[in-house]
Amino acid sequence: MSVLPAGTPVPDFSLRREDGRDFTPADLPEGTAVLVFYPFAFSPVCSSQLNIYEEVLPELHEQGATLYAVSCDASQSQTAFRESLGVSIEQLSDFEPKGEACRAFGVLHPGGFPQRALVMLRDGKVAWSYEAPSPGDLPGANVLFDGLAAV
Amino acid sequence: MTGLGSAPFPPPGPEDRVRGPAGAALLIAYADYECPFCAALELRLTEAPVRHVFRHFPVVSKHPRSRAAAAAAEAAGEQGEFWAMHAALFADQGRLEDPHLWARAGALGLDLERFEEDRRSPAILARIDAQFRGGLRGGVVSTPGVVWGGRLFGGRAEVEALLADLVPRLSSPAPAPGASG
Q1: Buried b / exposed e across A22-40, counting CB within 10 Å, b at 16+?
Q2: CA atoms within 13 A of residue A124's CA, in its CB half-sphere
Q3: Is residue B45 within a helix (H) or strand (E), and if so which, with residue range?
């Protein structure tokens, strides 16, 4: 299994927002939605990843991109994680049924957590995607902007 | 290509803070004053035979006072005391609020009025931002990020391995009891 490539139609998926509402393809914003799949809340690399992405949110917004962080953690864990980091990136939970959305995007690790991956969605399709070589590899913020330049 | 897309690390320029022997190999450290691993790196680098370029990489969401501390170092630099302030900031990372910065500036004999003006000046804040953005574009994701031989070393294990090569004396086992030399 590997991340869906550019040009693939957005798959059906359902994630849970922090406030308990569903997040489905119908909820994708105007412009580019960037799904940041991360393995585990409170893990060191994931912490660094969300912290560094938080620093570039204004530039991402200027380019019409909206960032969402996706993991298989429960929403309560994600919220606690986000608050502990002091970041504002909205969290989307793939906890129940666990991993189904990650599977739809081709990023479900055999261990039951998301591969570290970035997926940009635009106009109903995957516009760009990136999968890290391993869960311990952290794509820098520059990779986000390389992706935006390509969509 | 967007403004923060991938790009090589900028070569040392006139706004960089550089120390060490002129002919030594270049090491660029992206770091922040609120990062404990950066403080540890700083101690090691003082022993390393390298030309050390220090660049600010304040991840404010993680270290809320890192940008203010960077600005304090740069403001001290305007009065010729960058490295002294740099050392004073790393030496006591638990005290980085404004009164602590003023105290350091006073201890260094800086003109406090000028220090206050400089550390909030657009030019200094732009310098810090430019260094941060340069690090981002090169792929720095956390602190410290060390550029050595054109390669980025990030994370404790990689940086430790690099330092073990650069500073073998500090990494070698302690002499056995009774050993002379």
Answers
A1: ebeeeebeebbbbbbbbbb
A2: 0
A3: helix B36-45
Q: How many CB pairs under 8 A join A and B?
A: 62
Geometric angle at alpha carbon A12, from A11 and A16, rounded to 5°: 120
**Is beta strand A65-71 parallel, antiparallel or unpaired with respect to B26-31?**
unpaired
Contact criterion met (CB < 8 Å) for B61 and A146: no
Tokens of B32: 């922040």
Instruction: Please tell me the pTM assigned to this model.
Output: 0.91
CA-angle at B73, arms to B58 and A53, nearest 5°: 5
CA–CA distance, B48 with B81 (Å, rounded to integer): 21
B157 close contact with A: CB closer than 8 A: no
Whole-complex ipTM: 0.92
The pLDDT of residue B181: 35
Sheet holding A22-23, edge to edge: A22-23, A15-17, A90-93, A65-71, A32-37, A117-122, A125-131
Check: CB of residue B153 under 8 Å from CB of residue B135.
no
